[in-house]
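User: Quick one: structure for sequence A, then sequence B.

Assistant: Sequence A:
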Amino acid sequence: MVDDNGAARGASPWAGAALEVEGAGREGGQEDEQVDVNKIDIDGFDGAKNAGGPSGEAELGGAPAMEFERHWCFGPACTSFRRILNVAGAVMALANAAVDVIYAYRTRYVLATIFQLTCAFLILRVIGTVAAGQYYYTKYVRNYRASMGDVAEEKNAEDEGEEEEGAEEDGHRRSKNYQEGVTLGQHLYSALHLLLYTGFFRLLPSRDFPYELGIGYALELFLSMVPMLFCMIFNNAETDEKTALQSLAMLLKVCSLLALLAELILMIWEISLNRKYSKLGFANSKKLGEEARRREWGKKLSWVAVASMATFIIIMLIGVLTTSARDCGER
């Protein structure tokens, strides 16, 4: 059947639009022209359709396809560059933490005040790290009560299509999942102490740990990097004959500071993009829930923390054993 505009019922609305254009041309006395439907600009209509329905939402995790494509910052090349920079920064931070202790133990200080300041900042770094780690451990382990919503959803997903097995087994499964979450939380937030001290907190994903990353960078920058750099500058300036340890410590400190500034810029940019895309509905940019965060990162980060602390101890022992004792000189 054909309606008043000459468009078949059930046909595509774009075919109807094409016939309307053709009919208007004939009524105006113009020559008959073949109207190509493909030449009609339908981008706006496609965008409206995708914004209003699910057809344009599947690929982008729930966000309208017409809004934004994934930013190039989350592409493979940029992601690999950030990971390499973070790993390099973590290795340099670990070496810095060990060299700072070796420097204070083996280097000759001309002024007692500089030595006292060096020791004070080394102690403050330990106290600040323990305080920050203990805050998160208390908040997310001791005082944390997991919501049973995630546990129930997980159970329903596992039991889909199966018969109910009884209230007793259901309660046992929930209790088991809850206990597993508690254990993973203990692993994760116990490891945070070591990660903050050795500098390997950089490996935390900015999407899921933005505040922990900010605290880690602040501790390293204000309790270790900047004050220790000034102490070394003043002490080296007063020293007539500089040792290899002094030169190495200064070079490592400057390189670490430059890398840290680059990491901070990229981290702030990445967090802002994640929040922007999360508001638009991109599923990959949304922060994981606490239970999911524990399951994803609990075991991995605990192994990283143990390995980084073991490496720190090994570097410090090698440095102490291979460097010569300092000459205190006359007082």
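Sequence B:
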Amino acid sequence: MTKNKIVSIYLIVLLYAVYLTILGQLLPRIIEDYSLSMSGAGLFSTLQSLGGITAVFSCIFVVDALNKAKIFGACAVLLSITTLIIGLTPQIIIVYVTFAVLGIATGFIDILSNVVIADRTSGKRQRLLINLLHGFFSTGAVAVPILAEAVSSSLRWSMVFVGFAIALLICAVIYHYSYRNDVKQPLKQRLVDKNVFRIAVDVLHKRGMKCVALSSICTNFFLVGIIYWLSTFMSSFENNYSHGALGLSLFFAGVMVSRLGLSKLSTRINAAVLVGVGSLCASVLFIAGLLVASPYAAAVLFLLCGAALGPVFPQTVSMACHIAQGSAGTASGFVFFGFIVGNMISPLAIGAVADIQGMGLKYALIVPAMINIIGAVAALCVRSIMRSVAKRAVESFESEEV
């Protein structure tokens, strides 16, 4: 896999992170412009996830037989077009519908960015490149909240979406040039196996895969809640939007540092341990950040939370690909199913809890942190299961030799 191909994927993923963070950062202004309730604002993510379900089930059942590089490039263009529509339309109904279409693009970008790399690499290089991929994601998210806040203070929030759409379209052109030979190939690479449902079930039944899927659901319920609502929570300190930008930027700074800093170390530490311990520490730090009285103390705790959570998602993908070697698309589909479930339920659920009289956003955000602890336990169970499988394999080998 050439450097140009790697970088072109990384650039699109970086801008995908920009999209997610500008949505979270600009959400208070969108709520204000459209006079939305917390639940109404959470509906954006739910509709996006409905579109994302299409991508997830396509990846679980058929994507391993298709030209993944071609689909990835097409979805980068689709994301550019849909964000441009959101930036240019004043009608909330059109915005809601566009989010559902946009979800198809983001779902495929999420999954196939990992799978395109996983199909072309293996072993430690695979884990390294996937971890760096997610490092680029967090890099794209670090400065964006502050920049988006600075731009939207002088321009309408919709113009930020328009600027993003243009930048992504440029990166999509670079990607298509780098993968020009791949995208020229037919969409269907081989016949889709008639037993796709059985194959998917077989992958899910592999030892440890159910725990990986559960861990992914819990982690992403937590992560999506942070991306979507953290800026709004931080903005409640002194009714200052700048606090929201600071909190979200520092959270992603922590994610970036840990992902890039641990890119080499992650090849030496068991993935399940990184996921379990990281998730547990992240939940504790996040709850502490919600309960402190100072916005600056909260921002520091969210920075540490991001550092703890950083390696979790890429290492979950690595765990799935390791358990189901040869079925990277299907295995990754189950992991990203967790992301879609989190994206569909988390923002809306948190908004609904926050709308309950006497609760507020602070206490509503404790819920995903507690759910994430369940994910930590599930990940540590994967470690125990895999050690048990390895022990049985050794015992079986020794008995055959005797």
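The CA atoms of residues 104 and 212 lie 23 Å apart. The radius of gyration is 21 Å.

User: Thanks, that's what I needed.
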